[in-house]
Design goal:
The complex is a heterodimer of chains A (about 150) and B (about 160). With about 150 residues, chain A is mainly α. Helices cover about 65% and strands about 0% of the residues of chain A. The longest helix of chain A is centred in the N-terminal third of the chain and has 24 residues, at about 5-30. With about 160 residues, chain B is mainly α. Chain B has two domains: about 1-35; about 40-160, Ferritin (Up-down Bundle), CATH 1.20.1260. In chain B, helix 4 (about 110-135) runs antiparallel to helix 5 (about 140-160). The longest helix of chain B has 26 residues, at about 5-30. Chain B is elongated, with a radius of gyration of 25 Å. The chains are: A mainly alpha (about 150), B mainly alpha (about 160). The interface between A and B is medium-sized, with 29 and 26 residues.
Chain lengths: ~150, ~160
C-alpha cells in the first residue's frame, strides 16, 4: 500500500508518540499505587499493539519506521505519584493529538479508521489517568485539538 | 470620431447587458437549488440538545452534578466549535450575527438511573453519528469531527 508523503509523516509522528507512551508507562509504574497496576499493564499493552501496527503500516508503504529514542523529556520531574499521573496524562494527550493529525493527513479509509480509534482510545485513557490523579476537568471538550 | 459618444454607447450597451443577463438567466434556467444541509449541522444540534439535557440533570441529581455539569460544558463547547466551522464553510447570508439557535429540547427522565442510561445512549448515538461524518469528511474538517467523536466517548465513559 503506497501512502502519500504527508500521511507517512503524520504516521511517523504518531509512531514517535507511541514509542514515548510505552517509555512513559514503563517509568510511571514505580510511582503508582497498586490499584493502578492493572490499568497500567492493559494500557501499555494497547500502546505496544498500536506501535507494532503502525510500524507494519509504514513498512508496507515503503517507509522506514522511526526508532524509539533512548529517553524522553517528562513534563515535570518524575518524583512521586502525582508526577507519574501527569506523565501518563501527557503521554496520552500527545498520542491523541498526533493521531488526530494522521486523521487530517489521509484520505485512505483504513488509515482514517485506525486514526479515529487511536485518537478516541487515547482520549479515554487520558481521562482515566486524570481521574486517578484527581485532576479536573477530567476531559477537554475536543481531545486531540491543538 | 467621437470617442465620448463611443464610450457612452458602450456604457449603454453594458447597462443593457447587465439588465438582460439576469432576465435571460431567469427565463432559461431553473432557480438554483438550496445548498444541502451541512453534515455538521446535525452534530451541532445534538451537542446543544445534550448540553441542555445535562444542565437540567445536574440540577436534579446532586450526587452526579459534577459529571452532568462537565457533560453540559463540553457538549456546549462542541456545539460552538461545530457551528463556527459550519458558518465558516457557508457564511450566513446577512452580515449581522447569525440568529441565536433556538433553545434545544432538553430530555427529562423519571429518576437518576434512567437519566444516566438516557444520557449514555444519547452520547453513544452522537459518537456513532460523528464517526460516520468523520469517515466521509474532507481532510480540512475531519480533525474537528474526530475530536467530537473522542470527546463523546470520554463523556460516555465518565458515566459508566
Amino acid at each position: 500500500m503506497s501512502l502519500p508523503p504527508e500521511t507517512v509523516d503524520a504516521l511517523q509522528a504518531a509512531l514517535a508518540a507511541e514509542h514515548a507512551a510505552i517509555w512513559a508507562y514503563g517509568l510511571a509504574g514505580a510511582f503508582l499505587p497498586a490499584a493502578s497496576r492493572p490499568a497500567l499493564a492493559k494500557d501499555s499493552a494497547v500502546h505496544t499493539v498500536r506501535r507494532d501496527a503502525t510500524i507494519a503500516t509504514l513498512k508496507d508503504s515503503g517507509a522506514t519506521p522511526k526508532a524509539a529514542e533512548p529517553g524522553y523529556r517528562t513534563p515535570q520531574p518524575l518524583t512521586n505519584q502525582s508526577s507519574a499521573f501527569t506523565l501518563l496524562v501527557s503521554a496520552e494527550a500527545d498520542a491523541a493529538s498526533t493521531w488526530r493529525s494522521v486523521l487530517e493527513h489521509t484520505s485512505d479509509s483504513g488509515v482514517r479508521k485506525t486514526a479515529l480509534d487511536a485518537l478516541t482510545d487515547a482520549a479515554v485513557r487520558a481521562m482515566s489517568w486524570r481521574q486517578a490523579g484527581g485532576q479536573t476537568p477530567a476531559t477537554p471538550p475536543l481531545p486531540g485539538q491543538p | 470620431m467621437t470617442p465620448l459618444l463611443g464610450r457612452r454607447a458602450l456604457l449603454r450597451l453594458g447597462a443593457l447587458a447587465v439588465l438582460a443577463a439576469p432576465a435571460v438567466a431567469a427565463c432559461t434556467s431553473e432557480p438554483a437549488a438550496p445548498p444541502p444541509p451541512d453534515p455538521l449541522s446535525a452534530l451541532a444540534d445534538a451537542a446543544a440538545a445534550d448540553a441542555a439535557t445535562a444542565r437540567g440533570l445536574a440540577a436534579q441529581h446532586p450526587a452526579l452534578a459534577a459529571k452532568f455539569q462537565l457533560i453540559a460544558t463540553n457538549r456546549a463547547a462542541q456545539a460552538v466549535a461545530l457551528r463556527k466551522e459550519i458558518d465558516r464553510a457557508t457564511p450566513p447570508p446577512s452580515t449581522s450575527v447569525s440568529p441565536a439557535p433556538s433553545t434545544p429540547p432538553a430530555a427529562t427522565y423519571p429518576d437518576q438511573a434512567a437519566a444516566v442510561a438516557g444520557m449514555v445512549a444519547s452520547l453513544a448515538a452522537a459518537q456513532d453519528k460523528a464517526t460516520q461524518v468523520a469517515l466521509a469528511a474532507p481532510t480540512y474538517r475531519v480533525g474537528l469531527v474526530g475530536s467530537v467523536v473522542a470527546g463523546c466517548a470520554c463523556l460516555k465513559e465518565l458515566l459508566s
